[in-house]
Design a protein that fits this description.
Strand 1 and strand 2 form a beta hairpin. Helices cover 48% and strands 6% of the residues. The chain contains 6 helices and 4 strands; from the N terminus they run H-H-H-H-E-E-H-E-E-H. It has 186 residues and is mainly alpha-helical. The structure holds zinc ion (ZN) (2 copies). One zinc ion binds at residues 48, 97, 99, 102, 105, 107.
């Protein structure tokens, strides 16, 4: 286990949120435009607390994305001021809590804080762990030539090269296979 469970969940949720940006999508499509898109996201990445389910809430969550994406564009030291700013802006105050069948974990925001703020602070707290445990090399971009998606490598040996968004690994294997075949017959 590279990170504790809570941290891994938050990092997965953060990468998935960043990957809804048109800039990281393989077809250049923004995948978080409607409440329906957001519901599908929330089905997969459970957040608790207050939900308003209105346009302001969705806009605020969408606006978090470029800020979170920046974390994939900097090195470990460069991430520190970004993460600190997120914690400061969210007025983070870490508290141990237990609820809804989850074991003790940290909430750094109140349950009635805006969802976008809770999500941003939760992401920031997860990246605190990545920085503190000196695992920044786990913060990666998909190695496929035609893919801009981001991911965090949770594999034991740190060998994951492709994102989770589609089948980049398979696609690149097929391309490599064809290239080899072409070279063989040339
Ligand atoms: Zn909780
Ligand atoms: Zn990819």
């Amino acid at each position: 286990m590279v990170f504790i469970h809570d941290t891994e969940q938050s990092l997965r949720a953060t990468a998935a949120l960043v990957n809804t940006l048109a800039e990281t999508d393989s077809e250049g499509v923004d995948r978080l435009l409607t409440q329906e898109d957001f519901d599908a996201y929330l089905d997969q990445y459970a957040y608790t607390g207050t939900f308003h389910r209105d346009a302001d809430e969705l806009d605020a969550v969408r606006a978090n994305r470029p800020r979170l994406r920046e974390l994939w564009e900097v090195d470990r030291d460069g991430a520190v001021p970004l993460v600190n700013a997120m914690l400061r802006d969210g007025q983070a105050l870490p508290q141990l809590v237990i609820h809804d069948g989850f074991d003790w974990h940290i909430h750094a925001t109140e349950p009635d804080a805006p969802l976008s703020v809770r999500m941003l602070v939760e992401s920031a707290m997860a990246f605190v762990d990545v920085i503190r445990s000196d695992q920044w090399d786990r913060v990666r971009h998909c190695a496929a030539d035609d893919c801009e998606a981001v991911y965090i490598d949770f594999s034991k040996n740190g060998s994951k090269r492709y994102c989770d968004t589609g089948n980049c690994g398979n696609r690149m294997n097929v391309i490599a296979y064809r290239r080899r075949k072409a070279e063989e017959s040339a």
